[in-house]
Design a protein that fits this description.
The protein is mainly β. The chain contains four helices and 16 strands. The relative contact order is 0.15.
């Protein structure tokens, strides 16, 4: 039996969202600052540059998180590698190599509370059911998920074009029934959702952060010919065809700091 005090009940902590066994909290002000940092901390809070954390109720479901993301946990919780045999390890090692994700994502089971490291990025909770049962994530966005979700590595339809466009060839796909959390450079309020019904979406740049597995994802020339592409000044674009949903940022990804 354990009791947690002055955490989510602290008047400086705001619960932003809850879904399944996940809860996203946000610190309204950074109170642990020295006088020389006070001005930066004040203006950061005014511009919504705030620390956020993901709180996981492991009692509701087993949780898989990105390697190194755990900050603390309370209760009877067991951590495992999440690897179910040699074949599973080889598959995850290959997926990690081509997607940029960690090969071993720790899995936490039992009864208790798991809290992940604070981040200045935006933590967005989503249900795979909202994506027709399978969603593909852009590289580096995965933070945590219900361990009962299946993790797969999916390839683009035309690998040669992806190489030419300088984009990644493979992405992480989550499928099944469950909730997951991503780290985004943009808040949910700014993300653009485009729903396709037997139609096409073309994006010049790596702005899409998640899309339905049902969509056919390729990299193609923006024009029908090399001359047309050169004249338009666009070159290669990311193309999503079929029926499904694409979630995209309105601005380019911010560089890591």
């Amino acid at each position: 039996m354990y009791t947690i005090k002055n955490f989510t009940s602290n008047d400086d902590v705001k619960v932003l969202s809850e879904l399944g066994g996940f809860q996203v909290i946000e610190y309204q002000r950074d109170l642990s600052v020295m006088p020389g940092d006070a001005m930066t901390a004040y203006y950061s809070a005014q511009m919504n540059v705030k620390k956020r954390q993901l709180v996981c109720n492991v009692s509701m479901m087993p949780v898989t998180v990105q390697k190194g993301a755990m900050q603390w946990m309370a209760g009877n919780i067991t951590q495992t590698t999440g690897v179910k045999g040699v074949g599973d390890f080889i598959g995850k090692a290959f997926g990690a190599k081509v997607t940029g994700e960690s090969a071993i994502k720790p899995e936490y089971t039992g009864m208790g509370t798991l809290v992940l490291e604070p981040t200045y990025k935006y933590l967005i909770l989503m249900d795979v059911a909202q994506w027709g049962g399978a969603v593909v994530l852009d590289d580096g966005l995965f933070l945590a998920c219900d361990s009962r979700l299946q993790q797969q590595t999916v390839a683009r339809s035309n690998l040669s074009s992806a190489i030419a466009g300088g984009e990644g060839l493979f992405n992480l796909c989550l499928s099944g029934n469950g909730v997951f959390c991503i780290e985004s450079d943009c808040p949910l309020e700014e993300l653009i959702e485009i729903q396709l019904q037997d139609d096409v979406l073309k994006i010049d740049g790596n702005y899409a952060i998640a899309w339905s597995r049902s969509l056919n994802f390729t990299v193609e020339r923006s024009g029908k010919s090399l001359i047309g592409s050169a004249a338009s000044g666009e070159g290669l674009v990311n193309v999503y065809r079929g029926t499904g949903t694409v979630l995209m940022m309105p601005t380019a990804k911010m560089p890591n700091v």
